[in-house]
């Protein structure tokens, strides 16, 4: 039963081996975001130029993929030759020696062309463990038409306080037009990404220098009170279960006057095949408040080769191809210039054709330049990462804190109580992991 | 649970011991054959149960995080302590119970009513039956996504449009009634299962008995109460048993809709294990949580079996 | 005053319309999913939702271009039929022996079998993954067949046991007097009588294996991935996907749904608990 497919596979392997010696199969685990789907669609091009390499794809939803890859790499499962991982995993796994170092890259690859902040994020102790496929920060999207009608104007980088004033003016629930859309669904990669950047702007931090959480401090209290007030009063109904997608759908159907989220959304909201407001979107930096530090996040999806891979050379061929300038050219040819994976290479942003075609590119570039994961907050912190904390326990802690904050947002617990619980939850976890006593 | 049902359970066990009559020799031969036939299943399940269980028990006693390889000291009951004293534990246990009981009640009541409804012939009964059981064939993740985004969404969902059509404010399901929304989705998936089993059971209901009762002047309600319902007792027991097992570990529906929030309102034990342990790859904690869930599930199952098991295993 | 015939007719009409109403309500989400699969992504989230729109096949074309549907479907078929077949091979003799050779331990064995289902998958992922790695079962259809067989076995034993309990013992005694061996007893006497019950057990096991989405996602890569993995590759937290997801879900559920519909008659007969008395 198990071998039903083997004959077919063997037949194709034999057919290939007549052309070259044995074809190496590279199994790639990747997320199903738009840019990766395009990469999968271009894999024919790679196989044509590398006849001795065959690509096998495992495309999964982000959360499922993360769990799948972590299980595999931590148990030496060896199922994958190329893994699509984020900034967060690269740091942790690189440190454990689970990834293959990517050194001696060819000169044509031009590794210095990669955004320094992204490259730093993917390196551990100066060694590069993954190549960035695309990168993102966060920024403010707003409806130019609505702003104009109301006689408002958006500064280059608004403050959160200004955002509240705008939201108040533009919030017209009876016309299904909501002042502001923000993430509310519980999850470390959902509401906590936004809430952490908002808290950063209010001068808060996850942990003090000796790893004590600070949720009951004045900064977090003020930030979360502001967030629940803003989104609760001037947001859409159901905000506490809206993630990136739900907000994208709302914004694209013209229900949101403003939205603060990932810079990759820039190409979605301006794409007229999926957005009703494609011509009316304006862009600004992510809002600041008492500080600009950590106001916009930094994330990158990158390709890495696990140490357990048995075809590292072929995997390396693929990884360097998919993150090269040549690949960007291929995407431009096939899918149009705005589809070039954003946020990884400086050369993309020096290309006038790209800057003119992609209205969001200028703000994306500025946001990425300002994001610095090694100096993310007003007060000093012992960790790196803007909307995340680079320790293995973070996913779990932030997921639990995320639930509490969504509880405060939906009004089923007061802010003070949610933060008190958040404090005790994170203290417990940090104690358990022996960071604090 | 009543004392009588407890006694009934004990009696059943002793009844079984006496077994059927027959010559001693033949009985021994037959019991050997019986043993031979039951053993493959038992053996397979024993291995399936024993090996992971042994590993789970072992892991639950050590510090074992996949992300900290090599650091595997013995920690005793620390993992259990942390899992049991988690803030979400009480809420999680309560939500698990509430979810199981509500869905059981809804699906059994709706199942009985629908089964009775489609028992009399009418135009297009075949199509109606097929439509009634269809949701059971849909993958849980898909039904959760469809319900959340296409039906229940307070802005663009179908229900919101219906509400607005009648001039009402759409209900914000996942904010105001998160657990109820999940119960709704899960019930939708499991009502068809109950309908399927009960509907077929209805066909074997003795028509003459019903007619006789009617001639005696019994109304439809009395017939339902005294004839139909007792007849359905055994299939209802089967529905409850099988559904309970699946409902105790509901996960996909919660993960895709609410992520366990807001607050702890939709966190059940399966989700708690996920967020406490699997997310940070703390295998020790996941194992401890798994074992605690097994204990709770077995207590629930034990009580359930005591209550309804008689229906299921005894010959009517 | 209405005549008896008229009242009866009126009652049928009333019951019929009520039943239709309930059925339409329960079926509505599936209908809506099907409808959405023919919309463009923009139409899919338009508010208020549209019942009438210009249908498009673009979602199905996109899926056809991007993924090899039949590869996944074939894996699903092999895995669910394979595990159901092996499961029945194990469950029928076990249920037979428990139903007709009851001992003191029977009831406890039955209960214990059910309790093996109580260990939540999220709690045992890592132990199972390690075992699979050591036995070379990762990303194989055989591995999934083994897992599904074991997961569904308790339920199959329970159901078959219940059907067997319905069969009068005299029939078996008669066969035995004719000199039938236990094997012949099962094959010639029991199986034909319990045919319907077995059919429904088989269908239940098929549905459960077909829709299982935890092990199938976590234990496979590209080789053995079934339709659940295909669905998971279309539900993204980034980007709009309702229409495509609806299309891929329709494709994923269609085979088992059609199979279920076709076997519905058999099933309705089979699930008649207490039918044979």
From TrEMBL, chain A:
CDD domains: PBP2_TMBP_like. It is found in: Periplasm. Its main location: periplasm. Coiled coil: none annotated. Belongs to the bacterial solute-binding protein 1 family. Residues 1-22 form the signal peptide. SUPFAM superfamilies: Periplasmic binding protein-like II (SSF53850). This is Maltose/mannitol ABC transporter substrate-binding protein. PANTHER family: ARABINOSE-BINDING PROTEIN-RELATED, DIACETYLCHITOBIOSE BINDING PROTEIN DASA. Gene3D superfamilies: Periplasmic binding protein-like II. Keywords: Signal. Pfam families: SBP_bac_1. It comes from Marinobacterium zhoushanense. It comes from the Bacteria.
Automatic annotation (TrEMBL), chain B:
It is found in: Cell membrane. Its main location: membrane. SUPFAM superfamilies: MetI-like. It is a multi-pass membrane protein. Keywords: Cell membrane, Membrane, Transmembrane, Transmembrane helix, Transport. The chain crosses the membrane at residues 33-59, 97-118, 130-147, 179-201, 236-257, 277-305. Pfam families: BPD_transp_1. The keyword Cell membrane applies. PANTHER family: ABC TRANSPORTER PERMEASE PROTEIN (PTHR30193). Belongs to the binding-protein-dependent transport system permease family. This is Sugar ABC transporter permease.
């Amino acid at each position: 039963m198990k071998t039903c497919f083997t004959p077919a596979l063997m037949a194709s392997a034999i057919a290939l081996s007549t052309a070259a010696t044995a074809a190496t199969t590279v199994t790639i685990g990747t997320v199903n975001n738009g840019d990766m789907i395009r990469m999968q669609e271009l894999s024919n091009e790679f196989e044509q130029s590398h006849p001795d390499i065959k690509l096998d794809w495992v495309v999964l939803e982000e959360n499922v993929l993360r769990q799948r890859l972590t299980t595999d790499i931590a148990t030496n499962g060896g199922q994958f030759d190329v893994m699509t991982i984020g900034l967060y995993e690269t740091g942790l796994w690189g440190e454990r020696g689970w990834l293959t170092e990517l050194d001696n890259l060819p000169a044509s690859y031009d590794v210095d062309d990669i955004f320094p902040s992204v490259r730093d994020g993917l390196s551990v102790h100066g060694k590069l463990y993954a190549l960035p496929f695309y990168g993102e920060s966060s920024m403010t999207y707003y409806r130019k038409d609505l702003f104009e009608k109301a006689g408002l104007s958006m500064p280059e980088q608004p403050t959160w306080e200004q955002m509240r004033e705008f939201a108040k003016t533009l919030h017209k629930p009876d016309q299904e037009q909501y002042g502001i859309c923000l993430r509310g669904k519980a999850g470390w990669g959902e509401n906590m990404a936004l809430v952490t950047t908002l808290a950063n702007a209010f001068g808060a931090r996850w942990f003090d220098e000796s790893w004590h959480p600070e949720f009951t401090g004045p900064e977090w209290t003020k930030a979360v009170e502001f967030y629940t007030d803003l989104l609760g009063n001037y947001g859409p109904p159901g905000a506490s279960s809206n993630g990136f997608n739900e907000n994208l759908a709302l914004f694209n159907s013209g229900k949101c006057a403003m939205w603060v989220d990932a810079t990759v959304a820039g190409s979605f909201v301006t794409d007229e095949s999926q957005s009703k407001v494609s011509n009316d979107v304006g862009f600004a930096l992510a809002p600041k408040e008492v500080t600009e530090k950590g106001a916009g996040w930094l994330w990158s999806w990158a390709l890495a080769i696990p140490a357990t891979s048995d075809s590292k050379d072929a995997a390396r061929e693929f990884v360097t191809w998919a993150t090269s300038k040549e690949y960007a050219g291929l995407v431009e040819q096939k899918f149009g210039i705005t589809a070039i994976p954003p946020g990884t290479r400086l050369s993309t942003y020096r290309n006038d054709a790209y800057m003119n075609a992609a209205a969001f590119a200028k703000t994306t570039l500025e946001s990425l330049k300002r994001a610095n994961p090694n100096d993310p907050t007003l007060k000093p912190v012992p960790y790196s990462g803007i909307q995340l904390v680079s320790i293995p326990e973070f996913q779990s802690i932030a997921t639990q804190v995320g639930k509490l904050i969504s509880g405060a947002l939906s009004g089923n617990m007061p802010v003070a109580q949610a933060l008190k619980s958040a404090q005790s939850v994170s203290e417990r976890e940090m104690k358990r992991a022996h960071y604090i006593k | 649970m009543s004392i009588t049902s407890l006694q009934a359970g004990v009696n059943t066990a002793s009844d079984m011991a006496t077994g059927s009559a027959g010559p001693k020799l033949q009985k021994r031969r037959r019991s050997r054959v019986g043993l031979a036939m039951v053993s493959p299943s038992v053996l397979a399940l024993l291995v399936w149960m024993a090996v992971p269980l042994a590993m789970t028990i072992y892991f639950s006693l050590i510090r074992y995080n996949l992300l900290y390889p090599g650091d595997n000291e013995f920690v005793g009951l620390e993992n259990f302590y942390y899992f049991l004293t988690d803030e979400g534990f009480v809420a999680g246990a309560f939500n698990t119970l509430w979810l199981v009981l509500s869905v059981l009640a809804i699906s059994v009541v709706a199942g009985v009513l629908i089964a009775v409804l489609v028992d009399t012939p009418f135009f297009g009964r075949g199509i109606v039956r097929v439509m009634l059981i269809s949701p059971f064939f849909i993958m849980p993740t898909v039904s959760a996504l469809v319900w959340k985004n296409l039906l229940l969404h307070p802005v663009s969902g179908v229900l919101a449009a219906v509400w607005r059509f009648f001039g009402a404010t759409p209900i914000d399901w996942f904010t105001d009634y998160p657990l109820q929304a999940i119960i709704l989705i899960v019930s939708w998936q499991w009502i068809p299962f109950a309908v399927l089993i009960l509907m077929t059971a209805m066909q074997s209901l003795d028509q003459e008995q019903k007619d006789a009762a009617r001639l005696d002047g019994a109304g439809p309600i009395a017939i339902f109460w005294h004839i139909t319902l007792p007849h359905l007792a055994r299939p209802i027991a089967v529905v409850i048993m099988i559904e309970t097992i699946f409902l105790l570990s509901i996960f996909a529906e919660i993960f895709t809709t609410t992520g366990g929030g807001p607050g702890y309102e939709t966190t059940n034990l399966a989700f708690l294990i996920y967020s406490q342990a699997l997310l940070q790859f703390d295998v020790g904690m996941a194992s401890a949580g798994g074992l605690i869930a097994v204990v709770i599930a077995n207590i629930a199952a034990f009580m359930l079996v005591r209550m309804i098991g008689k229906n299921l295993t005894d010959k009517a | 005053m209405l005549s008896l015939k008229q009242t009866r007719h009126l009652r049928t009409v009333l019951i019929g319309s009520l039943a239709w109403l309930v059925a339409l309500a329960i079926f509505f989400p599936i209908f809506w999913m099907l409808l959405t699969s023919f919309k463009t992504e923009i139409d899919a989230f338009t508010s208020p939702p549209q019942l009438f729109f210009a249908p498009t096949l673009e979602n199905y074309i996109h899926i056809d271009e991007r993924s090899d549907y039949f590869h996944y479907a074939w894996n699903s078929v092999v895995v669910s039929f394979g595990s159901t077949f092996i499961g029945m091979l194990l469950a029928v003799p076990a249920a037979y022996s428990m139903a007709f050779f009851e001992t003191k331990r029977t009831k406890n064995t039955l209960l214990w079998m059910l309790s093996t289902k109580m260990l939540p998958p999220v709690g045992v992922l890592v132990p199972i993954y390690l075992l699979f790695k050591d036995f070379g079962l990762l990303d194989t259809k055989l591995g999934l067949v083994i897992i599904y067989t074991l997961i569904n076995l308790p339920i199959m034993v329970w159901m078959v046991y219940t059907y067997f309990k319905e069969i009068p013992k005299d029939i078996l005694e008669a066969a035995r007097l004719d000199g039938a061996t236990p094997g012949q007893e099962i094959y010639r006497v029991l199986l034909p009588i319990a045919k319907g019950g077995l059919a429904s057990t088989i269908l239940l096991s098929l549905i459960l294996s077909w829709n299982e989405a935890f092990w199938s996602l976590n234990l496979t890569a590209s080789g053995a991935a079934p339709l659940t993995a295909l669905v998971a590759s279309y539900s993204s937290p980034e980007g709009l996907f309702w229409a495509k997801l609806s299309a891929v879900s329709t494709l994923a559920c269609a085979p088992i749904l059609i199979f279920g519909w076709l076997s519905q008659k058999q099933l309705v007969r089979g699930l008649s608990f207490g039918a044979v008395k």
